[in-house]
Structures are given as structure tokens and as C-alpha cells.
């Protein structure tokens, strides 16, 4: 068993969980006031009811709230807060691996199949406001910065921060 040196040496699932915990402990991530009523994409219909949703590899499977406030429970709001931070950790990892990603790229990355009833399903983008807010939060924390060629890129302090979190994860050698 050895420790990882960079984000590329670690499983994406393990890194996102570790970095989300790091972001949560730092307290720098501010949630918008509209998190309890936001719908994170045109393809989403209902809020997550599964408490095991926290352990899903892809955070976008759990992000889906509808507008009626009677559907939103306190437990679901806590789930959403945790998923929002995991979503931010996942976005930071993707910017680390391939820079130059912007809001539109994240809409396509975290989008998925939109159900159309009896009609065939089509691709539906995820919400741009959620991705934009997370990118602005990561930029305020100086993890990412605006790339002059378009999109965002990781800063040197952000790269160091992500590598430190990855270095705490134990990797099993093949």
C-alpha cells in the first residue's frame, strides 16, 4: 500500500468523497439561498428520496429538486447540501484533469437522458445556474481561475490543495 501523489493516482470516487469532506470542513463553500427550491436540470422531476444516494459515484444522479416546497423535507435539504459540495469536488477534479471547462461544458458533462413519457428520450442538459454558482465559489476560494482561452483552469494553490487531499488517500498497488 502506498499513498497517492496526485489526483490522477486516486480513484475518482474516493477523491470526490475526500475533497468534499475537505471543502465541508473548510467552511468556505457558501450555499445559495435558493438551494431548497432549485431544479438542477430540465430532465429532473423529483427530489431524491433514497438516503443511500450519498454514496453514489456520480453526484448528478442525486441532484434533482422540484419547485413545490411541500416536497422538500429537512432531511432532503441536508442531502442536497452534501451533494452540492460533492458536486463542487467533482467539478474541481474535472478542471484539474482537463482545464478549459466552462459552464456549458459542465451542463453537458452532468446532463443525461430526459424522459419524455411515451416519446423517445433525448439528452437534457443540467442546470447552468448550479454549475455557474459552484464555479464562482471555487474561484472565490482561489482554486480555479478564468482561462484567457475560455473556461476555467486550476490555480497553483488549487493544484497544491487537491494534491494534498489526494496524498492522504491510501492506494492499493496492483
From TrEMBL:
One of its GO terms (molecular function) is structural constituent of ribosome. Keywords: Ribonucleoprotein, Ribosomal protein. GO terms for cellular component: cytosolic small ribosomal subunit. One of its GO terms (biological process) is ribosomal small subunit assembly. SUPFAM superfamilies: Winged helix' DNA-binding domain (SSF46785). It holds the Pfam family Ribosomal_S19e. It comes from the Eukaryota. SMART domains: Ribosomal_S19e (SM01413). InterPro entries: Ribosomal_eS19 (IPR001266), Ribosomal_eS19_CS (IPR018277), WH-like_DNA-bd_sf (IPR036388), WH_DNA-bd_sf (IPR036390). Belongs to the eukaryotic ribosomal protein eS19 family. PANTHER family: 40S RIBOSOMAL PROTEIN S19. This is 40S ribosomal protein S19. It comes from Buddleja alternifolia.
Amino acid at each position: 500500500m502506498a499513498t497517492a501523489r496526485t489526483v490522477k493516482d486516486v480513484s475518482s470516487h474516493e477523491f470526490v468523497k475526500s475533497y468534499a469532506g475537505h471543502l465541508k470542513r473548510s467552511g468556505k463553500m457558501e450555499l445559495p439561498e435558493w438551494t431548497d427550491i432549485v431544479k438542477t436540470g430540465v430532465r429532473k422531476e423529483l427530489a431524491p428520496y433514497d438516503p443511500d444516494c450519498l454514496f453514489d459515484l456520480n453526484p448528478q444522479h442525486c441532484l434533482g429538486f422540484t419547485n413545490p416546497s411541500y416536497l422538500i423535507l429537512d432531511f432532503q435539504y441536508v442531502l442536497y447540501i452534501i451533494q452540492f459540495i460533492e458536486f463542487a469536488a467533482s467539478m474541481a477534479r474535472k478542471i484539474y484533469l482537463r482545464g478549459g471547462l466552462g459552464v456549458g461544458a459542465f451542463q453537458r458533462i452532468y446532463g443525461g437522458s430526459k424522459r419524455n413519457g411515451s416519446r423517445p428520450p433525448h439528452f437534457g442538459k443540467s442546470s447552468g445556474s448550479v454549475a455557474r454558482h459552484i464555479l464562482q465559489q471555487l474561484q472565490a476560494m482561489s482554486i480555479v481561475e478564468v482561462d484567457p482561452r475560455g473556461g476555467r483552469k486550476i490555480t497553483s494553490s488549487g493544484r497544491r490543495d487537491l494534491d494534498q487531499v489526494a496524498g492522504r488517500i491510501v492506494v492499493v498497488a496492483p
